[in-house]
Amino acid sequence: MAKPEHEFFAAEKVGFTPCAGDVPQLTERILAADDASGVATRMLRFEPGTDTTPNGVQAHDFWEEVYILEGSITDLRLGETFTAGMYACRPPGMEHGPWLSEEGCLTFEVRYRP
């Protein structure tokens, strides 16, 4: 029940794949994961114009830390836009989204269990 060991490697060697849900413009690059527990480290990419409304409001049973590397996302429920350099730490059960990214966005995320 642990992520695999990795020494430094070029992250772009890992391709982006579609995320679960109904939004094909939302893709992820899984850098490390433990499939048994669901914990992961990933990069999440919103193509320009991505709207995650079909996926609804999200809440997870794990901790999630998110750092915006590029671009911006707007939480449609809150009516707030978050930009590159901003950070979030969400405890299990915290609601967030749905999101709109007019210009596109790239985040770095770490997920772990309590």
**Major sheet size, sense and barrel closure:** 9 strands, antiparallel
Beta-strand residue percentage: over 45%
Counting helices, strands and paired strands, the structural category is mainly beta
Mean pLDDT: 95
Q: Please tell me what the overall shape is.
A: globular
Q: Please count the beta strands (DSSP E, at least 2 residues each).
A: 9
Organism: Actinomadura rubrisoli
InterPro entries: ChrR-like_cupin_dom, RmlC-like_jellyroll, RmlC_Cupin_sf
Protein name: Cupin
Domain ChrR-like cupin: 25-108
Question: What labels describe this entry?
Answer:
single chain; 114 residues; mainly beta; Jelly Rolls; 9-stranded antiparallel β-sheet; RmlC-like_jellyroll; ChrR-like_cupin_dom; Cupin; RmlC_Cupin_sf
Fold topology:
Layout: E1 17-18, E2 26-34, E3 39-46, E4 50-51, E5 63-75, E6 80-83, E7 87-90, E8 99-101, E9 105-112
Antiparallel strand pairs: 1-2, 2-3, 3-9, 4-8, 5-6, 5-7, 5-8, 5-9
Walk me through the structure.
The chain is mostly beta strands. The protein has strands spanning 17-18, 26-34, 39-46, 50-51, 63-75, 80-83, 87-90, 99-101, 105-112. Strands 1, 2, 3, 4, 5, 6, 7, 8 and 9 form a nine-stranded antiparallel β-sheet that branches. It is globular and about 40 Å long. The two termini are 13 Å apart. The model has no long low-confidence stretch (mean pLDDT 95).
Task: Give a quick summary of the entry.
Residues 25-108 form the ChrR-like cupin domain. This is Cupin. With 114 residues, the chain is an all-beta fold.
